[in-house]
Amino acid sequence: MIRNLRILRRMVAAEIAQQSIYRGAWVIFMLANICTPLISLLIWRTALANGAQLPVDERYITTYFVLLGIATMTTSSWMAGFLANDIRLGKLSSWMVRPASLLLGFVANNLSEKFLKVFALIPMLGVVWWIFRDSMNVPPGFGRWALFVVTLVLGAILVFTIDILIAAFAFWMDDVSALVQARVIIGSVLSGAVVPLALMPEWSRGFINYQPYRYTVSFPVEIVAGNLSSTELMTGLAVQIGYVVAVGLLARFVWAAGIRAYSAVGA
Amino acid sequence: MTHTHAISAHDLTKTYTFHQQRAGLGGALKSLVRRKYETRLAVDRVTFAIEPGEVVGLLGPNGAGKTTTLKMLSGLLYKTSGDLDVLGHTPSDRKHDYLRRIALVMGQKTMLWWDVPAMESLLLHKEMYGLSTVEFERNVAELAELLDVQDLLNVQVRKTSLGERMKLELMAALVHGPEILFLDEPTIGLDVVAKARVRSFLADVNRLRGTTILITSHDMDDIEALCSRVMIIDHGRLQFDGALDDLVRTAQPRKLVRATYATPVDVGPLTAFEGVSAVEVDGLTVRLEADRARTGQILEQLTRLGPLVDLDVADADVEEIMRDLFLRRGEAS
Predict the structure, then answer these.
(1) What are the residue boundaries of the ABC transporter domain, all occurrences included (chain B) (predicted)?
(2) Which domains are present in chain B?
(3) Best of B66, B79, B115, B182 to disrupt the A interface by mutation (most A CBs within 10 Å)?
(4) What's the pTM value of the predicted model, to 2 decimals?
């Protein structure tokens, strides 16, 4: 464990060195990350100002979209396509003959990119926060913010594990890009990244509340923006932990079976 | 199975299952509905043992099964059947204790991080293999000197040439001092100077560290320079396992002789001499093939033909021998 952490630290350092070369790219990524929720925020605020009847108020909508950028950035994962490619093209081989977890490189890539993105995102978020400071729900005390951070970390782990699970199918399938694309599209809707889940139709409430993607983005943001009761908070946290464990175990099982089927193509 | 061998394989077999798809839109649509799966025997009951410190060449035409064998030995592939023991481990378990003792260099796959200097990859290996700082620095200094790459360690890998990159790959693979080094086409694409450097480095590593080396290469100069023993795999079967000299002797039992004289000579008596064949005369030069067992007597005959200026006796080119061997086997199958 300690050795893996030391390897991870070294990999993160190398990744940061590597990604710093392309500094223009992450500024553009961050602008895109903040612009999408900002545009959504303006649209929904305009709708409310024009008398739209929504099940949530303006303060909820504003807080939700201001925090959405940081939530999607923190919990995002982009490794499924890359990992699937490494499996399909046999590039996994050079990692398989070395004494370390095969996924450490992807964890390092994810952490280092997020570390760099934070530097661009925080100032942008600060500006947006300052603009909308009077129309946001800011929960008093430390509790909800701590829970926000914990659920963001769990959400990040959940997204990452879903990605491993999807990529692992590349051990048997020639092309998993359709699966990856489906995950991105379905995930962006069901996670609340496009439309707040609170605005989903009432009849879908049961499904929406308990499907896994809610716990990747929406749930952490709801903790700060919404009025979740203590029971709803604890239930949500338990469901999120349950998904992390269940998907984690499933991904581990599929991955282990996949490694046996690995054909290490290419010389 | 004894553990005194570095590598021991008994009836090692690997089969692949894959689906066939016809080219074109029709084939693609058909394969969506119905797929025809086939099983291919890549390695077929191969048995061999390699002792610590040996340098063995694994040869064979494309698709013969040599790279599949190498991948099973290094733990990348699971065997379908048979026994395989490398340094007392089952490679496919990929236990860290095992992976710390081996290294695999694939000529067409990189271990190095592309956008950062090679030193970053070496430092990563320091952590992966649990090397102390003293040990790491000593190994880096020794390898950098042997490979003459001191000036390249802090250059972005993508800015190095192919030859330089291969040297850095070898350095990354050997920095932890593996007991076995698996090499898959290590000199592919390199120029003659870089090839020579890599060969002499590998010979040094074997001599100085006692590293067992198993190498696949299509470049017979690699094999001649490094391997005292070769194994030939074809159609998944081990066709030959022995000394390179024995292979040459078996496949080409004649020596090539070239004699140059000061004045024209009559080669008539030679053609009648036992063990002589393929006599050719080109001006003052006479070329012939001589039976190995009678080479001494044939040379003596040559000295009697006239005033000798130059004499050259050589084995047939290994590359030619291999080409003939693979062609013959290909036709036979």
Answers:
(1) 27-260
(2) 7-248 (3.40.50.300), 253-315 (3.30.70)
(3) B115
(4) 0.81
